[in-house]
Specification:
With 480 residues, this protein is α/β, with parallel strands linked by helices. Helix content is 41%, strand content 20%. It has helices at 2-27, 161-166, 185-195, 210-227, 240-259, 271-284, 296-306, 335-343, 352-356, 373-376, 379-397, 399-403, 413-429, 439-451, 455-463, 469-479, and strands at 36-42, 45-49, 58-62, 68-77, 80-85, 97-101, 106-109, 117-118, 135-138, 155-156, 169-170, 174-179, 200-206, 229-234, 263-269, 310-311, 318-326, 346-349, 369-370. The strands form four sheets. Strands 8, 12, 13, 14, 15, 16, 17, 18 and 19 form a nine-stranded mixed beta sheet that branches. It has a six-stranded antiparallel beta barrel with strand order 1-2-5-4-3-6.
Length: 480
């Protein structure tokens, strides 16, 4: 009996050991680490076998001196994983060890980010110490039910007279800023950052020149604008994965403030660099190019990013977003520009001719449009804006005839009006980068420009006699 009792006790002990081991395995799966091996490297693409990880997951690749390089899974084929380094690739050796990481990428968010400059990984770039965020958010954000979004019905003051009056932006609208290089898009973004009435401003500087980051912060944004802003800076020398992350991090930060009930202005420069980063990744893993070298995944990524902006649920906050689109060679039919126009709620086009003439902001009113202006502006405002564009367009269509003297004053009433109002129209469109113009003041100035009598009318009124157009023209030129 004693031997039988001893066997039962021994079996009970083994059973308890097995139960304890099973519990440890189920509660601490990270104790079992499956290591893979690096088999191939072409360009920025790494191929690994012997391990598995989900798309978007992270893997650590061992380099020299036992230092690990962080990579992201961007694709797979059979038992191969395609990895893209998040930072540099110096020090990677053949047959290097690859360790999948179970940690999901999270974005630091919170009010402590205000006034800070961070990179695409959420690491501070300024000298203000570590971030003291209270929580983190998902990099991919959350899908908002389109039926639960608050409609765009409230105008937003961006501090730029031409946009406020002629291209009125609604709170929660997504606008494109189409411009070539060197026509003042960064200055215009800085003006909106400083003069906007938004509660919080999130600026994403994605894929631009590194020197522009400090210049934008110090010379354009200023200390006052930085105080209520969050800057996410990922210059062009960063990896394509980091550039993608930068745009997503900026959007996630804006979403967090929106969920707090705040009205956010999201400025991203540029959407084109985001698309080019995705193109680099897609082509590196073998995706075939479709439109002018852009793979189909690029045109799937764009709406996935843009649709995250906009109004939240009823009674909540909003994200009003401006995305710059680089039209290389001033080509408005660029694939990214064409795709952006289809998914955005309007676009502001900057003209190189106006910029070269010293006219800032160089907004081409004829080529620009706000698709929600008719929903947020009253009838009198819409009519004034329509007449402004009509008169401005009339002058532009006949500018060559007027400049060479081929047009005779008095021939066409609408052209005469356009000639006389042209200086006032151009003055209205011009605004100093250091001067703010609120929405109410912009509408007042628009009303003053469009209701002022023309010079020919003033001559007629002063003479108190009715004269023919030709006589009015003669009297006008005498006074001039």
């Amino acid at each position: 009996m004693s031997e039988h009792t001893e066997n039962l006790s021994l079996a009970s002990n083994w059973k308890q050991v097995l139960l304890n081991t099973t519990e440890k395995i189920s509660t601490r799966p990270n104790l079992l680490k499956v290591e893979g091996q690096l088999t191939r490297m072409v360009g920025m693409t790494l191929e690994a076998v012997g391990c598995q990880s989900a798309i978007g997951g992270r893997c650590l690749v061992e380099g020299v001196n036992k230092q690990f390089i962080e990579t992201e899974v961007v694709g797979f084929s059979g038992d191969k994983l395609y990895l893209m380094p998040i930072e540099g690739i110096d020090g990677i050796l053949p047959n290097a060890k690859v360790i999948p990481s179970s940690d999901a990428y999270r974005v630091p968010v919170g009010d402590s980010l205000l006034g800070r400059v961070i990179d695409g990984a959420g690491i501070p770039l300024d000298d203000k110490g570590p971030l003291k965020h209270t929580h983190t958010a998902s990099l991919s954000g959350q899908i908002v039910n389109p039926l639960s979004r608050e409609p765009i019905n409230v105008p937003m003051d961006v501090g730029v007279r031409a946009i406020n009056a002629l291209l009125t932006v609604g709170r929660g609208q997504r606008m494109g800023l189409f411009a070539g290089s060197g026509v003042g898009k960064s200055v215009l973004l800085g003006m909106m950052t400083k003069f906007s009435t938004a509660d919080v401003i999130v600026v994403g500087l994605i894929g631009e020149r590194g020197r522009e980051v400090k210049e934008f912060i110090e010379n354009i944004l200023g200390s006052e604008g930085l105080a209520r802003s969050v800057i996410v800076a990922v210059p062009a020398d960063q990896s394509p994965v980091m550039r993608l992350h930068g745009a997503q991090v900026a959007t996630s930060i804006a979403e967090d403030f929106r969920d707090q009930g705040k009205h956010v202005l999201l400025l991203m420069d540029s959407l084109t660099r985001f698309a080019q980063a995705q193109r680099e990744i897609a082509l590196a893993i073998g995706e075939p190019p479709a439109t002018k070298g852009y793979p189909p995944s690029v045109f799937a990524k764009l709406p996935g990013l843009v649709e995250r902006a906009g109004n939240g649920c009823s009674g909540g906050g909003s994200i009003t977003a401006f995305y710059t689109v680089l039209t290389e060679g001033d080509d408005q039919q660029d694939p990214i520009a064409d795709a952006a126009r289809a998914i955005l709620d309007g676009h502001v086009v900057l003209s190189r001719d106006l910029a070269e003439a010293g006219h800032y902001p160089a907004i081409d009113i004829e080529a620009s449009i706000s698709r929600v202006m008719t929903e947020i502006a009253d009838d009198s405002h819409i009519e004034l804006a329509r007449r402004f564009k009509q008169i401005y367009s009339t002058y532009q269509q006949n500018r060559d005839l007027i400049n060479v003297g081929a047009y005779t004053y008095g021939t066409e009433k609408t052209i005469d009006e356009a000639i006389e109002l042209q200086p006032s129209l151009m003055d209205f469109l011009h605004q100093s980068m250091n001067t703010a113009m609120d929405l109410e003041g912009s509408l007042h100035d628009l009303s003053m420009v469009m209701t002022q009598p023309t010079q020919a009318q003033q001559v007629v009124n002063s003479n108190q006699v009715a004269v023919t157009p030709g006589a009015a023209s003669a009297n006008l030129y005498k006074q001039l």
